[in-house]
Amino acid sequence: MASIEFRGVVKVYDKKNLVIDDLNLLIEDGSFTVLVGPSGCGKTTALRIIAGLEEVTKGSVLIGDEDVTKKEPGDRDVAMVFQNYAIYPHMTVKENIEFGLVNAKVPKAEREVVVAAVLKQVGLERHVDEKPSKLSGGQRQRVALARAISKKPRVFLMDEPLSNLDAKLRNQMRRELVELHNKLKTTFVFVTHDQIEAMTMGDCIVIMCDGRIRQKGAPQRVYNDPDNVFVARFIGDPGMNVYPMEGGGFFGFRPRKVGFAGSGDNGAGVDASGDDGPADNASGDDAVSWPGRVAAKEILGSEVLYCVKTKLGDVMLKTSSAGRGMDDLATVSVPRKNLVFFDQNEDRVRDENEIRRLAGGRLGA
Ligand SMILES: Nc1ncnc2c1ncn2[C@@H]1O[C@H](COP(=O)(O)OP(=O)(O)OP(=O)(O)O)[C@@H](O)[C@H]1O
Ligand SMILES: [Mg+2]
Questions:
Q1: At a CB cut-off of 8 Å and minimum separation 6, what does 170 contact?
Q2: Tally of domains within the chain
Q3: Does the residue 364 lie in any domain?
Q4: What is the dihedral of CA 223, 41, 211, 81, to 10 degrees?
Q5: Do both 98 and 220 map to the same domain?
Q6: Can you tell me which atom of ligand 1 is nearest the CA of 45?
Q7: For a Cys staple, 198 with which of 34, 181, 334, 346, CB 3.0–4.6 Å?
Q8: Which atom of ligand 1 sits closest to the CA of residue 14?
Q9: Residue pair 115/94 in contact by the 8 Å Cβ criterion
Q10: What is the 8-class DSSP label of residue 338?
C-alpha cells in the first residue's frame, strides 16, 4: 500500500504537444481514486507516468515516500490493467496468472498458493485449466485482474478496464472491483471517461480537462458543489443546465432541481444524491420561471427526462411524473435557492452576498 504524488509534473510530447500541465496531485494511500475526463485530456498519460511507461518532461512522481521519477517500471511495484486485457490465448487461466510469478522466480510451491488465492478472489476457481477462448469477456477481464493481483503491488493502475464489456457485465464488474478494493485495501487508480463509472466506483474522483485538474473530491461533493462550469456540466446524467447571464458570468441548476410550474412537481424533490431538502413551492415568489415547449421526453424507468425549449435554451428536467407530452406548452420553474452561479472565468461564485445579489437579479427572464 502506498500513496502516489505528482509534483509539478509536465508532459510534452514531440517537443510541442503539452499534454499534462503542471500536475500536482496527491492520491491517498488505500483510496479508490478515479481519473475522469473527456477523451484526450491526458488520463492515460498520467497513469503511464505513474507506471514508469512514460517519462516526465518536468517534475517528479512519488510512490509512498520514495521518488520514483527515474525508476524503471519493473522496480516501481505497481500493476497495470489495460483496456484490452492482454492475456495469452495459448495459455490456460492458471498459466496466464502464474506467468509473472515464474518470471519473478517465485518457487513453485509458493506460486500454487498465490494462484489459488487470487483465483478465489476473482471467482475463477472452476476455470483454472481453461483457455481464454472458452471464457466470457468479463471472465477474461478477471484473468487480467488476477494476474495483476498476484504481483501484490503497492498500487493498482487500471486504464478503462471495463470498456470492452457489455452494459450488464460492466455493472457487475464495477461492483466486483469495488469489493475487491475493500478486500485488498491497496491503492487503486482507475481511469475512465465515463462520469457515471467514476461516480459509482470512486471514493475520490479527479476531474481532468486539457491536462489540468478541474476538481478533486468525493463523488457527492463534486456533484453537489462543483467548482466550475466544466465540472457542473461534466458530472451528472445529464449534467447541470448552465446559461450565460446579462452582464457576465453564468447561472445553473441541476435537472432534478427544476420542475414544471403549477404541477406540484416543481424541482422540489430531494436528489438521489441526498443533498438539500425539499424546496418551497417553485411557482411562488422565490422561484424563477421560463415558458417553453416540450421538445423531447425520455422515460428512464421510475423517472422521466424532459428537454424543454425556452428562451434560455434547452432546459433538461428530470422528474418522477410523466404528465407532459411532446410539444406541450410548459413553463419550467426553479426555486432561486437551487441556483448556482459562476463568474466570467467560469469559476464558482461562493461569496454569500454576491450569490444573494445575483439570485435576485434578472436571469434571462
Ligand atoms: N505517444 C504519444 N505521442 C504523442 N502524443 C501522444 C502520445 N500519447 C498520447 N498523446 C497525446 O496526448 C494527449 C492525451 O492522450 P491520453 O491518451 O493521455 O488521453 P486520454 O485522456 O487517456 O484519452 P482517452 O479517453 O481517449 O483514452 C492526446 O492529445 C494524444 O494525442
Ligand atoms: Mg486513455
A1: 162, 163, 197
A2: 2
A3: no
A4: 90
A5: yes
A6: 18
A7: 34
A8: 4
A9: yes
A10: G
